[in-house]
Structure of Putative glycosyltransferase:
Amino acid sequence: MASQLSLIVPFWNEEAAISHFVRSILPVLDGIADTDWEIVCVDDGSSDGTLRELIGFCETDRRFRVLELSRNFGKEAALTAGLDAATGDAVIIIDADLQDPPEIIPKMVQAWRDGAEVVLGKRIDRSSDSLLKRKTASWFYALHNRLAHIRIPGNVGDFRLMDRCVVEALKRLPERQRFMKGLFAWVGFRTVSIDYVRAPRAAGMTKFSGYSLWNFALEGFTSFSSAPIRLWTYLGTAGALLSMFYALFIVLRTIVWGNPVPGYTSLFVAIIFFSSVQIISIGMLGEYIGRIYMETKQRPIYVLRRTY
Ligand code: UDP
Ligand code: MG
């Protein structure tokens, strides 16, 4: 029996890239022996002609499916929608901008048939990304993997193949704040990776600015580690110990030399230092409380307007 392959592709204002994408993906998929495929296109609230073009493909080829989200929910939510809808025995997540080369897909399928449950696309050359993006990304992974108990492999994006059992495991993770890279790593399974060279974007602009990447990184830390709040217990203890020694020192000095009343500077420095430290720690607590708040509301991760 032929196996079923589902491609999940998130689209947000990708009008310029769609036709390139479809033109390069079709021959690759048709070239894989013994497989039926479907492409689950998730329109993440595009405001340009993306949806219209996608529906066009849907009408000419029944293997295209389109999920239309009611607004822009972000790539993580779009991927979740795609995973919920995909029916294949294996699912491949791929960006619409051809930065993930379709030529790798047959190799991924081969590795899956050879027994892998997860096949990662690993970027061996990211020179198409800016130096700053590469550096900050590698710092993020280094720090994240030190703080959290799960390891996110470096230089791996969302581009990957997953067996049905992995998809079912992912669907059982109920969290609303979805840091997909972390969730993927959390479920585990037998994993292999395939190297590829990250191509420049085929058309259009990146959807992730510096600030949204920063928020994304915060999301990653707080979703999988409580080290950032635990840190304050240690800092507080260290500060308390130090101030005890300092108190002892001042008391002894006063007993020995009397009280000549300076000390304005040390007092002032201590006040501003410790109050700022407290505010930072409250902010950190707030990060987590905010996330608890978002989770307790139990809102759906995405809202569908229509499917085609
Ligand atoms: N994307 C999305 N919703 C968003 C942001 C991005 O569906 O809110 C999609 C986008 O259309 C593309 C993929 O996610 O298919 C990757 O985005 P992009 O290429 O901008 O990210 P980069 O490659 O720069 O990290
Ligand atoms: Mg891209």
Q: What stands out?
A: The chain has two domains: 3-205+300-307, 227-297. The mean pLDDT is 85. The CA atoms of residues 94 and 100 lie 6 Å apart.
